[in-house]
Each structure stands twice: as structure tokens, then as C-alpha cells.
Amino acid sequence: MASASSPSEPTPTRRRRGPIIAGISAVVVLALIAAFFIVRDRAGDGSKEAKALAAALASGDFSGVTLTGTDASGAKKEREKALGDLQDATGKAPSVDVSKVEKGDDGTRTATLDWSWTLPHDAGTWDYTTTATLTEDGDTWAASLDPSELAPDLTADETVSLRTVQGDLGSITDRDGDDLYGPREVRVLGIDKTQVDADQQQDAAKKLADLLGIDADTFAASVKSAGEKAFVPALTIRESAVDDYPLGKAADVPGYHEEKETQPLAVTKDFAPGVLGSLREATKEDIDESDGKIVEGDMVGSGGVAAAERDSLVGTPGVEVVAADPKTGKERKLHATDATAGKDVETTLDTDLQKKATEAIADQDSASAVVVMQPSTGDVLASALGPTGQSYPVGLVGQYAPGSTFKTVTALSLLRAGDTPDTTVECPATASVEGRSFKNADSMDKSLFGKMSLATAIAHSCNTAMLLQYDTVSQDKLADAATTLGIGQDAPEGLSSAFMGKVDPDDSGVEHAADMMGQGRVLTSPLSMATVLSSIQNGSTVRPRILADDDSKAPEADNPLTEDETSQLQDMLHGVVTEGTLKSTFGDVKGDQIIGKTGTAEWTDENGDAKLHSWVVVAQGDVVVVAFVEDGGYGATTAGPIAKEVLQDAQSEG
């Protein structure tokens, strides 16, 4: 009988199962651990995603970024809402870099972003740091666009913008340092729509407009189109002119409101507007067209010295970057730079003479101008405009046929061709060139027609005598004489839009003949004709100057004036005063020798009516005066008395 196995001995099967199960468990655990780390490795450390986010924040293109809570389009809109105004003002996108990515205890990643904006006006950069949180999303990291990622502590209701902070403005002064254009106290008068019921606003606007002497319908339309809480300006007046307006009655108009401000203005409204120019706050159009060079709050120069010397007058603006909540009106200053005050700019103008020149043409009902120049220096002492056409400085930028004042140039070209003041010339009543007929002025003494000396022809302004010399002087020689006397040179610093005259060297035939008598296609301005006579008085080419520190030299002419040419020209132009067309006006004026020339240029207005430009150019001592009236009749009759009054005023000042 077989014996039974001992119960204490395990069977072979039980001995093998334990190690197998334990081995399987270990493999499963190891596999899970490996899978965990494989997933982690696939997601990475977030650096790549952080860099993509930084690039998107800089450019506004979020198409390459995984986002939570929004999509690429929504993120772009949020960025534009918060930073669009700032980017428009700076003119370029910011740079955004990732300085580090850190692991959080909750498994997120925190990216530190370094921002840098380049500011206008050489104000440097605005640098700051924000952070962005990245959360794991499968095999990548997703970003949520929080406002605080865009700017320090920015909230969802805030927007970031930049504004210019102006320092104290400099002034434009006269030759003695007296203020001509600078900050002045003003009152801005208008309607505050928050202080008047909507159904009364139109009536209030029209009533105020009538009291202030402005167009009622235009102002009423401005009030209607403005925002519900807007203050709508109607008129800005100088503090010194407050008594000229019925402000007591204006105060009774519903919604009437005044604001006191400081604005850059001329010492008087009509003081040399074409010379001084103006400064004004930049408009939306200025900003939009500047490619980021102009921002809100900037001062823009317009015309004359103000435009040329804008940077000196304004100084270096500061900037402020602010975060504002439009719902509450509250704002925070995020960054600021200090402004530098502007400097004064000295001109060559003589204040007393400028006022007297303006008074001398105050009664003219046609566009008119007076220019006074110092021949020895080229300094513009006065540049006055008549009451018509103040916005168009005809004395500086006007382009007119100079008429017989151009015979100063023709005389020089004839001297260079071999003529002398005693050369005999023909002065018929009429003359024809290539079928075109020309005549002398109706005011010329008919007993003079016939043979006469060149000096007499200049003195009595014989047109036909000059015309018939067109074969003696070529057009290029006429143009060369004009260049010698300063015509065609570059405009002076500070008066960049000034017209310095034009004589086309290629004119021929009848045009060349007409040019000889200052008609044809010859064009000048009162400033350029002042330069011509100043060059003759000075004995060398003169360059006009309006800025006291302008040390530019006169252009070197290919054929400079000689002493003999200067003497002969001065003698002939003195004959205009002693025996010619200026005798009745200037013959009795005491003091140094006077030289001058009248001019009458024919033109046709838009209605086809024949008109006359009236010119006179005169010089005495170190003063040259040019008087011009656009629709003024004969030079001696209209412009002559104006020029005489101003010349005597100039001489009385010493």
C-alpha cells in the first residue's frame, strides 16, 4: 500500500504561480511609468509654445498658438482693443521675447515675457514684463489671453494709449527780441451739450452763432453731429479781445460754456501771417498721413518761420503712456518721459515798420503786398499783406508778370551786350514782332515817341524800345542777367514756399520779345523784385534773409555785377525819379539818392476783363521797398504812393 504525500510539501504548480504574477505586475507598473514619461516628453517644457505666444502678442496673429477660452480671431480683437491705439501712435509693433519658462506646482507653465515699445520723438523705449500661464493640452501647451499679459496689471475694460506732453513753447521774435508769435491766453466759446436739453440745442447753437458773428447753420450742424456729452467750440478769441464780444448776452444762451486756454498766436491777427506761419495741434489727418511720425497732442507747423523752425519752437515733447477705462473715465500712468522747452527764434523783421507797411495797404480792396528789404544784408524788414487775401501771402509766393519793373534786368542785359545809357534806341507808339502787336502805356507822353537814349527809355518806361532790342540780347543772356540780380535762387531758410522768380532761358520769338518788357512768360514775386533792386543797390547779388541766424551766402553768379554795371544801372534808375515815371511821386523826397522803377502788367481775370498789376520798386540808402497791388492800375498811380509812405517811414526810423 502506497504511502500518502506529506501535507507540508507544496505541489510543483503552487511553487511557480507566485513569481509569475509578481513578474507580470512589475512589468505593468514599469509600462505605465514609461508611458507617463513618454507623454510628458511629448508635451515638452512649454518653451516652444511660449515663443509662439510671444510672437503672436507682438504681431497680433494668433493662428499658430493653441488657446483656451478664445480663438485666434477673438485673441486678435482683444489685443487690438487693448493695444491698437498705442501701436498706431508708435507706428510699429512691439518686440516681445521670452526670458524664461517655469514649472508650477499645479503642473502649469509660467512664461515670463519681456516687452519693448519704441516711442516717438526719440523718447526711447517703454520696457516692461508680463507673465502668461500655459496649461497642458494633450501633446502641447495652451495659452489663455489674459489682459495682464498685454500690459502691467491691465484689466479687461482698459485700453492703452500714448499722448504727447508739450513743454513751454518758444516765441518768434523781431530783430530786437520782441515777441511776435508765441503762447497767448484765449477763451474758447461754445455749447456744452450736457448743459442744455436735446430739443433746445439747435436753437441755442444758432443764437450763440448770431451773437458771435459766425455762420449759424454751420455751427448748429457741428453741435448736432457732436457726441451727447461734447463741448462744441464755436469761436476762439484772444483774452485781450474779450470786450469786443457780447459775452454777457452769450452767457444767457442755454448750454453756453467758456474754456480758458493758452494757444500760440501772433501779436496781432494780421501781423505778417505769411512770414510767421502758425503752430496748431495735429489733426487726425496729420496723424494718419505721418507714418507714425506725428501722434495725438503734437504741434504741427504750417507755413513760414513756424513751419521751418517748428522743432526749435516746440522743443522735445515728452510722452505719457496711460491705461484708461472709458466706462469710468479713470486712467493710470504706465510710463512717462519729460518734455524739453522750446527756444525763441529771432527774425529780421522790424515790428514798427511791419505795422506801418500793413497800414499803408489797409485800404486796398485787391490782393496787395509791401516788402521792405535791407540791401546790405538781405534782411527782410517787413512783409505786409492787404486785408484781402491774408491767407495767401502774395508778397512771398505770388507769381506775377513784373511788367516794366523787369526793365531793371533788361537794362543789365543790354549793357552787357555793348549798349550804354547814351545808346540811341527807337520808341515808337506801337511795334510788332512775328505778327503780334505791342504798345506803350496809355499814360506815356506821346511827344516822347521816336528816338531816345536808353536811359530815357528806362526813365519813361518805353515798352517798344525794350521790345525792339530782342535781337540785341538773346534769351539766355536775359536769363543770365536775371540770375545775376537774384532771380531764380533758392528760397531763403524760413520761407521755403517763397517764389524767387523764373525766366525761362529757352523762350524764343515773340515770347522772348515780350520777356524783354516784363510780360511774356517772365514771373516774379514782390520778394524776388525786392531782391533784384537790392542787388543793384548793393552792387552784388543779394540773398534774402528772414532768420537772424541764417548765415547762408548769396549764390555766386556766373557773371557778377561789375562796378561799371552797378553805377550805370543806378544812374538810369535814378533818372526814373528825376525825370521819369516816379518824378511826381518821389521827386520831392529829401535825403540820399533814390532809384526805382514803375511797372504795369496786363492780365485778364476769370471773366475775361482786362486788368493791370501795379508795381513800384524803390531804394534809398540801405532800404528797398516794393509795393504791389494785384488789380491796381498804373504803377505810379496806385503802388507809388504806398511805396513812398513806407520808404519815408523806414527812413524816419533811421
CATH fold title of the domain at 351-652:
Beta-lactamase
Q: Which range best describes the helical content: under 10%, 10-25%, 25-40%, 40-55%, 55-70% or over 70%?
A: 25-40%
Name the overall outline: elongated
What is the CA–CA distance across the termini? 161 Å
CATH homologous superfamily (4th level) name of the domain at 351-652:
DD-peptidase/beta-lactamase superfamily
Report the strand count. Answer: 23
Mean pLDDT: 91
> What is the CATH class designation of the domain at 351-652?
Alpha Beta
Q: Strand share of the residues?
A: 15-25%
For the largest beta-sheet, the strand count, sense and barrel status come to: 5 strands, mixed
Number of helices: 21
CATH architecture of the domain at 351-652: 3-Layer(aba) Sandwich
Return the structural class.
alpha+beta
The whole-angstrom Rg is: 40 Å
